[in-house]
Amino acid sequence: MQSPCVGICQLNADQLCVGCGRSLSEIAEWARATADRQRRIKAEAARRLAILQAVSDAASPSSGCKEQ
Questions:
Q1: What is the pLDDT of residues 41-50, one digit of tens each?
Q2: Residue 30: inside a domain, yes or no?
Q3: Is residue 63 part of a domain?
Q4: Residue 35 falls within a domain, yes or no?
Q5: How far apart are the C-alpha atoms of 6 and 67, rounded to whole Å?
Q6: CB contact set of 4 (below 8 Å; sequence gap of 6+)
Q7: pLDDT tens digits for 19-35?
């Protein structure tokens, strides 16, 4: 199975990669993980990325909002 790495390898304060959503231990485990484990890692990473994106979107000012 192809790695979920997208080449943006930076860990946030929670020690999660902001590019792929994996934890440092999941990144280290990837090459030796079974296909089933890799699928679970990818699913969990995708869930984390969705949460990170939602939090980021909520923290960003709305583009429709204008100061008066």
A1: 999 999 999 9
A2: yes
A3: no
A4: yes
A5: 37
A6: 20, 21, 22, 41, 42, 45, 46
A7: 999 999 999 999 999 99
